[in-house]
Amino acid sequence: MRIKRLAPIAGLVFTLAMVLGSTVPATAALSDCGQSGKFCGWLDSGYGTKIYTLSGNAGVTKYLDSNDRDKTSSVRNRTNNYWCGVNQHIGADETVAEFQPGAQISYVGDFANDKIDHYDIKANSGNCYNPTF
Ligand SMILES: [Ca+2]
Predict the structure, then answer these.
(1) Distance from the CA of 60 to the center of ligand 1, in angstroms?
(2) How far is the CA of 63 from the centre of ligand 1 (A)?
(3) pLDDT value of residue 22
(4) Residue 130 has pLDDT above 90, yes or no
């Protein structure tokens, strides 16, 4: 009898565990990028700790706030354009990555990690300035 009465409770606990277990942080953070048309960056690989949400048209340069520069490790591109991640140098900028429309990049790679200062937005692939990747 006692087991019978506890069975529904055990089922509920199991269900709650399933629900809680399904909220994988990476998935939740990835969905944190708002509606389509946005470009998002995260501090950590695996979409950990979102730091910015941007939008803009092809031909535009979007500068990150000074606090957000040299920190990007993950990105999601929900726009229809190519976003060129640029590391600014005195004298010359260096493109460290090109993110295609729809890209979900859990880790931007050692070459681009913690380097991006601004994005040049392009309508077509292969038009990032000074691609060095
Ligand atoms: Ca930089």
Answers:
(1) 19
(2) 11
(3) 45
(4) no
